Amino acid sequence: MAKESKASTVAIQNLLEEKRQIERWLRRLDMASDKTPANVRKKVRSDYSRRRDAILTELQGFRDDLNASLQKHREARDELAGREEEAAERLAEAELRHTVGEFDSSKWSQIRAEILEELVKIREELKTEQAEIGQLEEVLDAIESSGKSEEDEAAQAEGAEQEEAGAGAEEADAAALELKQGAEQKPKGAKAGRSTDELAFLRSVISGDKSADELSSTPDQELAAADAQEAEPNSAARPKKGTAKKTVKCTDCKTLNLPTEWYCENCGAELTAL
Length: 274
What we know:
Radius of gyration: 46 Å
Structural class: mainly alpha
Shape: elongated
Largest sheet: 2 strands, antiparallel
Number of strands: 2
Strand order of the largest sheet: 1-2
Low-confidence stretches: 186-193, 209-217, 233-242
Order of helices and strands: HHHHHHHHEE
Mean pLDDT: 75
Helix content: over 70%
């Protein structure tokens, strides 16, 4: 290659290496901790993208030179490939002539050594040309795909924003559903209050604070008993409170309770009427 072409190649290689480094930083940025503030992440990404675009713009100035150099190396590669094929045929022909007896061992060895040396040089030149072609194709592909890379990056950023927005909406929907389910499962105001009062009242009876007569004559308790009868259809079958003996055994702690009780006076477990 001419001196100018080699200088251009060095400049191109430096630009390519810088571009690869920036692309590595961009990939690592995507894997960085999410604790980084969004505005900081956006600022760093914008800086890397700007620097990469500047490199691609500079590489575009070498487009014509790159295409011309690529064509030149491809022609050189094709020529070397033809020479390699020709040398291989000459080697096969010399071997055949030696086999039939035209070439003695000395002449065959001489011809073989010369052709093999030629083949080694041709293949080394082919390897060099192929490497040059690969580098040039990489540069041109990077230039051609620069526009597509920008579009892909923009689409990726937009997709990330939409994903974050979707996640926020899902969280809001989940919170609303949870509140709705809690409201549906919560007892209605009056009944909930009376159920709480009822339980406290029953415990006070168990502890001896109130008598069975007071239990039956309390208005709030009458309302609670009506609600309890609605909640448990089988409650009608329970015996009325009075002076009954403790005959209902708790299945958890085995304590005997009055047949009028709903909960064990010892452990608070729900009693099953017999």
